[in-house]
Write a structure and sequence with these properties.
Elements (H helix, E strand, L loop, with lengths): L17 E3 L9 E3 L5 E12 L27 E3 L5 E3 L4 E11 L2
Antiparallel strand pairs: 1-2, 2-3, 3-6, 4-5, 5-6
Bound molecules: zinc ion (2 copies).
Length: 104
């Protein structure tokens, strides 16, 4: 299955104008370009897995929304054609949550 780039809506204003401002070996701080809210996305595992997940082509850029897999901690979390989150590394189906939400 060909996965697509992760898209993330701001937890405050629901804008899709969201950028990743750090690096995976530091933190997952994101900022909303619309309202200035910062937040960190996390995932939790649904317990389901799918196999044969192919990473997006072209790959996401460094400032594209990024989150780590709740199971294997890979940052290879993408979106399926059904708009679900999946880890291309271990195949875990994930749900997105937001932490450290700070309104700008
Ligand atoms: Zn916002
Ligand atoms: Zn994983």
């Amino acid at each position: 299955m060909q996965a697509q780039k992760l898209v993330m809506a701001c937890p405050v204003c629901a804008s899709g104008d969201v950028y990743y401002t750090c690096t995976p070996n530091c933190c997952f701080n994101h900022v909303c370009g619309n309202c200035g809210t910062t937040f960190e996305p996390v995932t939790s595992a649904t317990g389901r897995t799918i196999s044969g997940v192919v990473a997006p082509d072209p790959m996401p850029e460094a400032s594209d929304p990024t989150v780590a897999c709740a199971k294997c901690e890979a940052t290879a979390v993408y979106r399926t054609s059904e708009d679900k989150l999946v880890c291309a590394h271990c195949g875990a189906m994930l749900v997105l949550e937001f932490t450290k939400v700070a309104q700008g």
